[in-house]
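>> received
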Amino acid sequence: MAYSTPLSRERIDLVLNAETLVAITLLSASPVGEILVAIPAGVALGVEPFTSFVVAFAANLLPLVILLLLMDRFERRFPRLFNYFAKEGGRFRKRLEGRYGSAIMLLITPLIGVYATSVTSKFLGFGKMRSFLLQLTSLAAYGLLETFGLHFGIQLLPNL
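>> returned
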């Protein structure tokens, strides 16, 4: 005799919500989505903008930390390649550093993603902590801006 329990509406909602949060997490942690895509995707899937931001922001930090830690291994494994890019990047950084270095990192992180920015920051000679803090600040600022825009934009829609 098989025993089965009927799924309650609350249980179905909980499973669907968990699946949605996992989808936001995977989208935000992937190089294709990242935070600028994951937040609106979460809202489109029915998650509140602030919840979508928190999940996407946390998930987007995971590849950032991993990449910053792995770049040292990359440097030891391929020293000639790294030294070439670091030398060229160092020249470029010297021109940018005084006026624009940190500002450029703040502006481009969400636009080109943490994957590209983490690698670029290493080649430009930014330290791990500085790179992490700049990218963290940038992701938080862009994510919150997008979240507030979605939140207030959704509130305005019924009034149109």
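>> The helical segments are 9-29, 34-44, 49-77, 79-97, 101-123, 128-156.
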